[in-house]
Each structure stands twice: as C-alpha cells, then as structure tokens.
Amino acid sequence: MRCSDSRRLKPETAGKAWPFAALILTCVVVFAIPALSQDAPRLTGETPPMENVAAPPVPKQVTDDVRKTRAYPEQPPVIPHSIEGYQLTVNANRCLSCHRREFAEAAGAPMVSITHFMNREGQMLADVSPRRYFCTMCHVPQRDVPPLVENTFVDMNDLGPKPAGGR
C-alpha cells in the first residue's frame, strides 16, 4: 500500500453506510418527487402544452407621429410611425433616409443622437457607428395595448421644491 487513505471505509463500518443512504433516498422519493409533480399543472397553464391554440390578433400599431414621453431616464425613444416594409440590412438602412444629420431638418424628423456616431472607444466617426446601425435593436414601434406593469416613473422636473412666484 503506497499511502493510507483515511476516507476509505474500514471493513467493520462498510455495512453501516447503506442504511443512511437508504434513508436519504426514501426522503427524496417521499417528499421531493410529490412536491415537484404538484408544480407541473401550475406551470403549464390552462390548456395542455401540446394543444394547438389560435393566436390572438396582433394589436394595432400606433402611427400618430407624436413623440412619446420616455418611461425612464435614458430610454431610447420609441418609433411613433409605421416601419413596415423598411429595409434594415448591412447594406441599407431606411431610417437614415430621414434621421441622418443632413436629411433630418428637411424631413422634420429628429436627428440621430451624437452618441450614435461614437465607436466603442468613444472616438467620433463621420457616419453612424456599425454598433448603432441597426435601429430596431433599441428603438421599437408601439402597439395599442395596455401596459403590462404600472409605470411609477417620476420625471426629474416633477421632483424637488417648486420655484416661488408661480413660475
């Protein structure tokens, strides 16, 4: 024998480990398995998971061209018009035909933020950064649906003391 291993069971204690392992296995079978099986119906929902269910209709898109108030600080502005049929590929970006610096004033569209012209090192570029080129990664069109979660955001202008004199 090269070394003595104190972790090995000695012949006189080898038979005593089985009752303990059997007790643990019995506890798992008696308590854990029924508890897990009780959660299954709650997680699957009202309809069986493999049943074909008709999808609800897609809600109407908001296309009123009115800028929406942001829901939280530094939220990317939402798209207030339809973008159906817009081409947004590596070679073409229809959004920039109105929102690029040189076209924004004539189109009456907000200009792309200067942050979109910075590379990841913070250096300014002459054109939109490749990492900001795909607009719909952050900017999304809106649908006419109720909010999923109540918004409790309070704008900075509404916090703190108000100026005296009715201003």
Summarize the structure in words.
The chain has helices at residues 17-44, 96-99, 101-107. By secondary structure, the chain is an all-alpha fold. The radius of gyration is 31 Å and the shape is elongated. It is 23% helix and 0% strand. It contains 3 helices and no strands. The termini are far apart. The longest helix has 28 residues, at 17-44. The mean pLDDT is 80.
**Strand-and-helix sequence, N→C?**
HHH
What is the number of helices? 3
The overall average pLDDT, rounded, is 80
> Terminal Cα separation, in Å?
92 Å
Major beta sheet summary: none
Sequence stretches where pLDDT stays below 50 over 5 or more residues: none
- Beta-strand portion reads under 5%
Radius of gyration: 31 Å
Helix content: 10-25%
Helix-strand category: mainly alpha
Number of strands: 0
Give the overall form: elongated
